[in-house]
Each structure stands twice: as structure tokens, then as C-alpha cells.
UniProtKB/TrEMBL annotation:
Domain RRM residues, every copy: 1-84
Keyword RNA-binding assigned: yes
Name the UniProt record assigns to this protein: RRM domain-containing protein
GO CC entries: nucleus
Organism: Attheya septentrionalis
Amino acid sequence: TIFVSQLVMRAEERDLRRYFRSVIGRSSSCVKDVILLRDKRTGRHKGIAYVELARLSHVPTAVAMNGQVPDFQRFPILIKANHPTPQDSSLSSPMTTMMGGALLP
């Protein structure tokens, strides 16, 4: 998954799908999902999105496009890899899981 920011308000999921498909140069299945984060009150997106790619190997190619200006934009977009956080339970070590995450002396 990659994180994309500084999107113009008229950008839509289909724009991001089309852009990353063209960048990666693969079939339409290279982009699994696009989620534009929206304001709960207005329903408008906040200019940021998560793009789930079909393969982890596609991430460096997508991130290399950081700072580019896609055809649906007026200014550069920011792209970075979305790295798992320590709170991700699937990455917890057995010790932190057993101890509830607390560090004991």
C-alpha cells in the first residue's frame, strides 16, 4: 500500500487507478483498491488516499513517481510507502503480546 497526498479536490479514485496502472505498466489488476479519505460531514475527500497495489514489488516503482504532476493534477503529488506500524498486531513479538506490550524491568 502507498500513501498519496496533495491531491486536487476534483481527483477521483478512477484517476488514481489509471495513473498507477500507466506508471507500473501492468494490467488493470495491478491496483487492487483506492481509498480516498473523506470528511465525515461534507463527504468531500481530504486530498489524501491509500492505493493498494497487487504486489509489494510494485511499490518502489510507484514511489519513484513522487513529485510528479499527473494529468489530473495542477501540482506535484506526494507518494510514499505505507509501512506497517508497531501497533499492527500481526507484527507483534510473542513477548509483547504475552506481556500486553508493557516493558518490564
